[in-house]
Amino acid sequence: MTSLFSIVETLDGLAREVAGEEGVKVVKLLAQKSSMTDEELAQKTELNLNKIRKVLYRLYDARLATYRRVRDSETGWFVYYWQLEKNKIYEFASRKTRLVIKVLKQRLNFEENNVFFECGNESCRRLNFDEAFDVGFTCQNCGAPLTQIDNSQIIEALKKEIRKLEKSLEEK
Ligand SMILES: [Zn+2]
User: Fold this and answer.
1) Predicted TM-score of the model (pTM)
2) How far apart, in whole angstroms, are the C-alpha atoms of residue 50 and residue 47?
């Protein structure tokens, strides 16, 4: 299973994309239970039933949620029990995680293969060797001299994040 944090983050983002803030509310509730009816969802979110149904159909359309239809033996009406499509969500989350790993590795490669310079002023930007050389090792923003900086902490942080994400994929 992908780490809980990234799943929650992904779920919120997905739900928002598909069905707005109301989608986020509904998905949060569905994530806590195995299934819920549209009426239960309307009660808990204090949204009206029509609104809830619209949200649910959007989630269904995006294959994030599915339902089971059961006939109520007393009323003869159908009751819809909604649940999240967990496999789809995990699949989406791991695809996203792999993409993030790829971007972080590119960044790591850039950090490991460059030396960087800065003036020490918070509001000025960091330059790589070619950029610093071009400006004669003088900050173009504040005029202070540029000195080489140690980026080993950035490299360590990137490696740690990559390891964490790769581990979360293995655990799935
Ligand atoms: Zn500067």
Assistant:
1) 0.62
2) 8
pLDDT exceeds 80 at position 52 = yes
Ligand 1 centroid, distance to 25 Cα (angstroms)? 46
Q: For the segment 137-169, what is each residue's pLDDT rounded down to a tens digit?
A: 999 999 999 999 999 999 999 999 999 989 888
Helix (H, G, I), strand (E, B) or coil at 58: helix
Ligand 1 midpoint to CA 126 (Å): 9
Tokens 């059961």 belong to residue: 70
Centre of ligand 1 from the C-alpha of residue 134, in Å: 15
User: What is the set of domains in the chain, with CATH numbers?
Assistant: 4-88 (1.10.10.10), 99-170 (no CATH)
State the distance from the centre of ligand 1 to the C-alpha of 115, rounded, in angstroms. 17
Cα Rg of the chain (Å, integer): 25
CA 55–ligand 1 middle distance (angstroms): 50
Cα 152 to averaged position of ligand 1 atoms, centre (Å): 21
